[in-house]
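Feature request, filed as a ticket because there's no other form

It would be nice if the structure record came with a short human-readable summary line next to the tokens. Right now we just get the raw output. Example of a typical job, pasted below so the devs can see what we mean:
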Amino acid sequence: MWLFAGITSLSFKYSHCLIKKVIVTKLKQRSQSAGNFIKVSYVLNNERTSETLRYKSRPRVCSRTWSTDVREAAENIKKISIHVAKHLKPVSEYDFGHYLAGLIDGDGHFSTGLQLVIAFNELDASLAYFIKDKIGYGNVYKVKNKKAIILVISNRIGLLKVLNLINCKIRSENILNQINNNILFHSYFNSITKFCLNSDVDLNNYWLAGFSEADGSFQIKLITRNNRTEVRLNFQIDQKKEDLLILIKNFLGGNIGYIKSQDTYYYGSTSFGSAKKVIHYFDRFHLLSSKHINYLKWRKAYIIIQDKKHLTESGLNKIIKLKKTMNSGNAAAAEGRD
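Raw output as currently delivered:
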């Protein structure tokens, strides 16, 4: 394991085998979710069929033909502002606590060695250091032979601060069990008399932003069939269990599916109505990782569609360019799920 950005070497109690297991698991999950089409066995809780916009091309002919239902779909897209709010980070302990809880629910692990490990893409070193600086404790490490870094917090004062920040804000039962079994047994944490999950269904806070940093992906899907190019916008989150995905589906709309070959559930926004809700959320609660850039490109594609510029060849080419530049540096971004 390499030390990252000149951090001095410290005694490292955390099991190297467990770190490898956690990192490999996360990277596998990300490689499955970052915009790659996979044939799914079935879809659960499907509220409506996926909305697509079809661009029918004819060789050496400039005009484009659209079917009536596609025109109606385009006309029914709800408009969003073309302006993007100034990018802000969570400042208050309340906001940062929800963000951190979501991030840990997605990419964190509390070990028996009294340590918290959070995994990041190597592109997101600045985010790892932001979390470290906000907490005031921790060390950042580069994972050898992996496009990943980890933030490790082993100082008990730092762990106590983390627990106070995320108490009653986390939503993962797995993380709750790790905290109860691996951390709270120690007498140092006796000041925490009760540690609980957040059972509130309201996601109007930073939790989903933090959770999406770990397991979310923004996808522009272009599928060509019979000289027609279908344009789809999808926000997707993959998980081994569906409980948190159901919560997200009820908040944003969309559907939940299951990939049998990977034994994985996924949430997909699928419709433009859900896409608007996704935009409304992330315009308020900003992503802090490199995924924010992907979100802005995804948002631009939505604006092109709402303004009906996708009906032109130049508009479609802009969407194609946006798609090609999304996830370009992300280790999880494998192309070709079409």
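Something like this underneath would help us a lot:
Residues 1-14, 31-52, 55-73, 330-338 have pLDDT under 50 and may be disordered.
The chain has eleven helices and eleven strands.
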